[in-house]
């Protein structure tokens, strides 16, 4: 077996490969771009080397530099993962020229399957069924239109060098052909430096079913059953499962046999996936062959118990396949969902930002997480926005689907928009449970999957407002402990006030689709109660909404170290509630019973707990001073605006908490401050 390999990739697939190498005592070399210097795959590898700046052309696609690093470190082989250089025949050829093993198929196989039109010609000669269409080299608009008319509308235009859903257009009628062809060719040229397209009959209600195949250098070829990847957005998979449900046994058997025939037609070696369209009339058609390990390979691993990365390493080293066809068995059912930083409500537009809080369900026999992202990582514009893959297994499809729903509800992620709620909606969708699958599932179930969000109820609002009250109290306690006279009654930060009961008012807002709700919540402690108890009065959009009385206490959640992550225990009307609350700047997210609610904290109007009344005013968040309205020795009234900060493109006013005098202003306009920095020294008037 290899002693050392280089992994020419990043993120979760690099981490996935390293795990298998560690188990097999194979040393690993990672490569990384400048923004990835602290990435998980870099930390997991035995060695790591810089490739260059963030853009992939200057880093992960620099084939010559990757090979140079492999030679420098003594790596005997390069695993390309998926994407980047994984299906690049030139890179595979360069590896061979330097006597470095490319962990993948031969150069000839990559070339043969790299062009969709050429691949279909090969498969047609091998007797593999194809969708009716045109795969020729003549690419004039007139010729392509003639072939489309011969095929019959609707047709599908596809980039011959394409993949990942790029360079694909559905054309319903002849009048739309010219504009669709121009658009398809432009995208194909931009994405693949090749504008050739093929024309195929568009199947109205197909399923996407694929077969995992493996072949070695000694002539053995097997399949490891099928996967259903029908659920897609923008022609890209988001949920995969194995085995494919509701598939007749004869079709299942034929798919495996045809996939092996396809692999043998090009003398394939290594891991590959033969993809088919399975039509509603019971016929299946070859679509393409991916000459690499697929993103969705874990569902196959879960039902077979095999490590496909280990199989890749063995085959690349020249060993026979670990098992023959009759020795490969499958049990149970597995799902994989791809968790993306994207906004499903905005046509799945990618989201960028820092992961402020991240918590996955516990991994075990039934639940697996593949990820290269950890809390505090940045999701950038340069790479695929996939955060993680959640994979679950159980004895049958219904049990696995229930497990998927529960596992999704246990994921907590703050910092970027994600498709978690969308995935949860699919896992609880009746049509999905009934196996009513097609590549148009998301479009057809749109109203069920993109249902209107529900606004926070009175309990949620009460919990968040009391959490904010207790957080203010805790911060006041810490600050008062550091004062010169911590025993002064005027420095007490509990609920005692001379002649009055302390209270706070919090202004919160909540965005739901196109609607924004505004809440004003008054929190008043009830000092007579045996346990610390609070009364909350909630105003919603300037109208009385609810009153909630509760007792509550908070505990810091040690599972998270980089975010304000708090456990809140409360009792409301004899009901015990345990929720998790994460605060990042002025955004508060509450997790309860598998649901989450996010509200924005706006400028508060009254805080009798605010310790700033005594002698200082602190920055509530990192930001820039954009306006100062006072000078040293000015006398101000309670509520007067002293200065304005800008943070996250929003303005935040710092107001006088009481009548008093400005003793010092510590910053100038334009200066940046960090959270908790003293901005103004303030002395309240003696009452």
Account of the protein in words:
This protein has 687 residues and is of the alpha+beta class. It has 6 domains: 100 residues, Rossmann fold (3-Layer(aba) Sandwich), CATH 3.40.50; 151 residues, D-amino Acid Aminotransferase, Chain A, domain 1; 70 residues, ATP-grasp fold, A domain (Dna Ligase, domain 1); 117 residues, 2-Layer Sandwich (D-amino Acid Aminotransferase, Chain A, domain 1); 144 residues, no CATH class; 73 residues, OB fold (Dihydrolipoamide Acetyltransferase, E2P) (Beta Barrel), CATH 2.40.50. The chain is 25% helix and 34% strand. The chain is built from 17 helices and 40 strands. The chain has an 8-stranded antiparallel β-sheet, with helices on both faces. Strands 24-25-26-27-28-29-30-31 form an 8-stranded antiparallel barrel. Strands 3-2-1-4-5 form a 5-stranded parallel β-sheet, with helices on both faces. Strand 25 and strand 26 form a beta hairpin. Helix 4 runs antiparallel to helix 5 and helix 12 packs antiparallel against helix 13. The longest helix is centred in the C-terminal third of the chain and has 24 residues. The protein is elongated and about 95 Å long. The termini are far apart.
């Amino acid at each position: 077996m290899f002693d050392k390999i280089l992994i020419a990739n990043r993120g979760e697939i690099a981490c996935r490969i390293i795990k298998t190498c560690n188990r097999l005592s194979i040393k690993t070399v990672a490569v990384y771009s400048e923004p990835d210097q602290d990435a998980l795959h870099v930390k997991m590898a035995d060695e790591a080397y810089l490739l260059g700046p963030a853009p992939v052309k200057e880093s992960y696609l620099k084939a010559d530099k990757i090979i140079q690093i492999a030679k420098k470190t003594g790596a005997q082989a390069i695993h390309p993962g998926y994407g980047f250089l994984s299906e690049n025949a030139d890179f595979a050829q360069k590896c061979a020229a330097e006597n470095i093993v490319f962990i993948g198929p031969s150069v000839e196989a990559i070339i043969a399957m790299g062009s969709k039109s050429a691949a279909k010609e090969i498969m047609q000669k091998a007797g593999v069924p194809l969708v009716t269409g045109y795969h020729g080299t003549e690419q004039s608009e007139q010729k392509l239109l003639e072939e489309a008319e011969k095929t019959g509308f609707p047709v599908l235009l596809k980039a011959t060098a394409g993949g990942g859903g790029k360079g694909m257009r559905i054309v319903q009628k002849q009048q739309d052909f010219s504009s669709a062809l121009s658009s398809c060719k432009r995208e194909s040229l931009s994405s693949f430096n090749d504008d050739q397209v093929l024309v195929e009959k568009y199947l109205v209600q197909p399923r996407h079913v694929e077969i995992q195949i493996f072949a070695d250098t000694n002539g053995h070829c097997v399949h490891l059953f099928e996967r259903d990847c029908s659920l897609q957005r923008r022609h890209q998979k988001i949920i995969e499962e194995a085995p494919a449900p509701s598939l007749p046994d004869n079709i299942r058997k034929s798919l495996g046999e045809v996939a092996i025939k396809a692999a043998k037609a090009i003398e394939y070696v290594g891991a590959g996936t033969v993809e088919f369209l399975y039509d509603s009339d019971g016929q299946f058609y070859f679509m393409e062959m991916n000459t690499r390990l697929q993103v969705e390979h874990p569902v196959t691993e879960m039902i077979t118990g095999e490590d496909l990365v280990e199989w890749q390493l063995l085959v690349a080293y020249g060993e026979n396949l670990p098992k023959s066809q009759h020795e490969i068995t499958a049990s149970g059912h597995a799902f994989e969902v791809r968790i993306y930083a994207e906004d499903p409500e905005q046509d799945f537009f990618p989201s960028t930002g820092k992961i402020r809080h991240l918590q996955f369900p516990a991994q075990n026999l039934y639940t697996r997480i593949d990820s290269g992202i950890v809390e505090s990582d940045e999701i950038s514009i340069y790479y695929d926005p996939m955060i993680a893959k959640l994979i679950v297994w159980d004895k049958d499809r219904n049990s696995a689907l229930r497990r998927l729903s529960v596992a999704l509800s246990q994921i907590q992620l703050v910092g970027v928009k994600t498709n978690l709620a969308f995935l949860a909606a699919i896992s609880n969708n009746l049509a999905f449970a009934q196996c009513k699958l097609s590549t148009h599932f998301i479009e057809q179930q749109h109203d069920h999957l993109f249902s209107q969000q529900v606004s926070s109820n009175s309990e949620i609002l009460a919990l968040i407002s009391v959490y904010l009250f207790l957080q203010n109290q805790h911060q006041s306690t810490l600050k008062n402990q550091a004062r010169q006279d911590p025993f002064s009654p005027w420095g007490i930060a509990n609920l005692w006030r001379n002649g009055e009961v302390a209270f706070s008012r919090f202004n919160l807002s909540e965005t739901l689709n196109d609607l924004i709700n505004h809440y004003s919540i008054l929190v008043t402690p009830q000092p007579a109660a045996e346990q610390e108890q609070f009364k909350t009065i909630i105003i919603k959009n300037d109208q009385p909404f609810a009153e909630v009385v509760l007792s509550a206490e908070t505990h810091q959640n040690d599972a998270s170290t980089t975010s304000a992550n708090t456990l809140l225990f409360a009792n409301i009307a004899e009901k015990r509630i345990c929720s998790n609350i994460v605060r990042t700047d002025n955004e508060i997210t509450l997790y309860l019973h598998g649901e989450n609610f996010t509200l924005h904290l706006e400028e508060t109007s009254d805080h009798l707990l605010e310790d700033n009344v005594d002698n200082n005013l602190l920055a509530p968040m990192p930001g820039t001073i954009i306006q100062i309205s006072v000078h040293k020795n000015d006398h101000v009234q309670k509520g007067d605006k002293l200065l304005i900060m800008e943070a996250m493109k929003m303005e935040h006013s710092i107001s006088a908490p009481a009548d008093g005098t400005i003793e010092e202003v510590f910053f100038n306009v334009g200066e940046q401050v960090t959270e908790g920095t003293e901005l103004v020294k303030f002395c309240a008037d003696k009452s």
